[in-house]
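Look over this one:
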Amino acid sequence: MHAVHPSPVNSRFSKGGGNDITLRKVSAMDFFYKFATGPEALPDLFFRAVGRSAVVADLGGVSLGLRLLVQVLGYNFIAFASALTAHLSGDYQNNIAKGQAKAKAS
């Protein structure tokens, strides 16, 4: 089994994959997309792992930074801190506002 954790990738996936669809934008990812890698970097990473036993590969600064953060602080602490601060994120507040608007409409 191989696991590849790329940093955000500038690909057509975030634009609907070439299809005429509307994707919701997650504002929490805006900061990380500043450090995105191009899709051309992924095949080399995939093929380097062929023929090897279990491989966990990180590509890009975001992936490496998150792995180091988890090693230093621990996953449980990060999950706890995320749960305590989730209500401060713009995405959470947008979803709450949409839910309240739907409740008023019905």
